[in-house]
Amino acid sequence: MEYRTKREDPGRIHPEPEYRYCPKCGSSLVLRILKEGEPARFVCERCSFVFYLDPKVAVGAIVWIDGKILLGRRGIEPAYGKWVFPGGFVDRGETVEEAVVRETREEVNVHVAVRRLLNVYSYPNRPVIIIVYEVEMLGGDPKAGDETLEVGIFAPEEIPWEDLAFPSTRDALRDLIEGPRSGSFPQER
Ligand SMILES: [Zn+2]
Fold first, then answer.
1. Number of separate domains in the chain
2. pTM across the whole model
3. Out of 38, 45, 150, 158, which one is annotated catalytic?
4. Same domain, yes or no: 37 and 98
């Protein structure tokens, strides 16, 4: 699914993905302002169902191995071939911690336990919110799994900054390596 965005004024930004039909009754969806100051919503012309475009929640895992960080090279779009820490979307009904453990096992074949929240990352006009944890490796042998071309283990000074997959990858690794800045949030950089 493709997201486009339209900035009407600084306070009202709404995404425009390719949704045309009501998921409940199949009639046409129209964009309508339901509440002043909020983005327009997709509303069904027939049954009045409101199709809210909620953010998507993703997790990322920082796996330390002997003072180095485990990264995988993505085998899928977007950012095919770029480096990222293991992670992915949280399924509905799954806890974020369960998602971290599952995604890390699926992508890099490592069993982990969640230890510390690093930070939460979100960006204007982007649907994904990324929650990044530092995790402890409990077992497994790092190797490329689902959607991953290869794995690599990088010392902080070896991070491939020019070949990272996403802004959140860069920002989280920077937070990790440069340390937490008290009172500093990602959007203030
Ligand atoms: Zn409907």
1. 2
2. 0.84
3. 150
4. no
Stretches where the chain sits below pLDDT 50 are: 1-13
Residue 24 lies in a domain: yes
Identify whether 19 is part of a domain. yes
Catalytic residue list contains 16: no
For residue 44, the enclosing domain spans 15-51
Same-domain status, 35 and 69 = no
98 CB burial (10 A radius; 0-12, 13-18, 19+) = middle
Question: Whose CA is closest to 127, among 176, 98, 168?
Answer: 168
pLDDT in tens, 18-42: 789 999 999 999 999 999 999 889 9
**92 and 36 within one domain:** no
Residues with C-beta atoms within 5 A of ion ligand 1: 22, 24-25, 27, 44, 46-47, 49
Q: Strands 128-140 and 56-65, how do they pair? A: parallel
Asked if residue 4 is part of any domain, the answer here is: no
Q: Which residues, listed in sequence order, are joined to residue 68 by a DSSP beta bridge?
A: 65
CA 174 to chain centre: 16
